[in-house]
Amino acid sequence: MQATTVLSGGRSSPLTEGRSPRILMLSLAVLLAAQLGLALLLSLDQGRFETSPEGPLLEFDPARVERLRIERSGAEALTIERAEAGWILPAHAGFPAAEAKVAALLERLADLRRRLPVATSNEALTRFKVADADFEGRLVLSAGEQSLGTLYLGDSAGYRRQYVRAAGDSAVFEVALGPGDAPADPDDWIDRDWLRLDDQDIAGIAFPDFELEREDGAWRLAKTAADEALEQDEAKRLVRQLANLSFAGVLGTEAKPEYGLDEPLLEWRIELASGEARRYQLSPLAEPGTERDTDGKGAAPTGTTAEGESSSPDAPDWYVLKVADEPYFLKVAAITAKPLTQISRDDLLAAPATPEAEAAAETASPAAGG
pTM for the complete prediction? Predict the structure, then answer.
């Protein structure tokens, strides 16, 4: 009983004596190591966290931007400028740029936020291709002589994601931005609706061998014989085709021999309800230095035969389109241009009634059915 009492009074057992101090020291050592590791981590990342407060990556007002310069590795720099009538492309002699696309890019840039950076070291700037002198791309926003912001574009971080860095900052961020959002090719920025018209605004069409006029909501073919009738669906199809012309690019404003527009293959005119008239000229685009035919039809377009058929499955067919009173020469794909060159007056006429068709009509009439 006495031994039991002594043990119960707090004296150590021979089996446990000396273990508690060792366990305590080991626990303290582990805790100290964890504290030192955490302190080291915080010390290493202190600059990283300090450079990433929540906020915009580029602080600018899209409405103030007057000029956007896009640089891409291996390509010529592209400038898009704001003019009185909207955004234009100086590289294309001031051809209108796609307003919605420019606005979308500026809004996307303004919405980029500073999150946790991927890296901050000088070595990382080169590794992610966002260094001042080593980058995949660069976007420069300005108003007059004032810089509103510069963003360096680096390597891809995945589908439509990219590493970026704002000028004057050492932090690299991963953002939702892809190469297609800011291409350097001016043809990627042209306003492709520039040729389009509202087909309801078209009052008349004149081709070399026929004229169409809108009358009381329907189309009428000028100079028709007694046995000729206009096929309304074909007339409407042609009007839609002309109202929705598309083009692939802008060739510039300088007339060149290979355009062949001194003797165009096709000319037509569109009369608008406002009284305005638009005149169009179309010719095949020949290779530079190619002699054109003297019959006014021009040489075959690159990669085609004289009949307009492709000489190779992979050969591109191109035409040149010019709108009178406009300075631009437009590059048009054959799939758009060739159907226009093949339109004839006969295509617009309804099929003549045959005895068989008239008999069928009489049989189907209510009178014939009793």
Answer: 0.74
